[in-house]
Amino acid sequence: MNTRHVVVGLVTHKKKVLILKRSENDPTYPDMWEFISWVSREKATPKIDAVKRHICHATGLSLSEPYAGKKFRVASVHSTLYMHPFIFQADSDEVTLLPEKHESYRWVRPQDIGKYALVQDLDNCLKLLSILLEHW
């Protein structure tokens, strides 16, 4: 079974969370929405400064110091994922996207996240959002 560590950045601004729409040319999930996430090369909890730098690069936002949520495990038939959630507060809602990765963005209320076709399955999104709401 394949084991991977996935970093998830929940970026907030005025009680809304940022989601990004993947490019139509994305090889795995074209035109789907996602939280900022990536597979980490590290086996342990990723370094906070590296997570912040990656999210700033992907969004052009200036971010607060993060709240690191508790890691949780997601198992499927093919793999086990260890999700590492980090919550950041953005000082602006003006996002500058990397066009090769994402084509648009939205700031959404947590209760409206189910209205979007997300890369992450809804159960995991709800778990991530519960971490966010506990932090608020």
Explain what you see:
This protein is an alpha+beta fold and 136 residues long. It has a single domain, classed as Nucleoside Triphosphate Pyrophosphohydrolase (Alpha-Beta Complex), CATH 3.90.79. It has two helices and eight strands, in the order ββββαββββα. Strands 1, 2, 3, 4, 5, 6, 7 and 8 form an eight-stranded mixed beta sheet that branches. It starts with a strand and ends with a helix.
Task: For this entry, give a set of tags.
alpha+beta; 8 strands; 136 residues; globular; Nucleoside Triphosphate Pyrophosphohydrolase
In short:
This protein has about 140 residues and is α+β, with helices and mostly antiparallel strands. It contains 2 helices and 8 strands. The protein has one domain: Nucleoside Triphosphate Pyrophosphohydrolase.
Count of structural domains: 1
Could you describe the largest sheet, including whether it forms a barrel?
8 strands, mixed
Q: What fold name stands as the CATH topology?
A: Nucleoside Triphosphate Pyrophosphohydrolase
Order of helices and strands: EEEEHEEEEH
Give the helix/strand layout.
Layout: E1 2-13, E2 16-22, E3 33-34, E4 36-40, H1 48-59, E5 67-68, E6 72-75, E7 79-89, E8 102-108, H2 122-135
Parallel strand pairs: 1-7
Antiparallel strand pairs: 1-2, 1-4, 2-3, 2-8, 5-7, 6-7
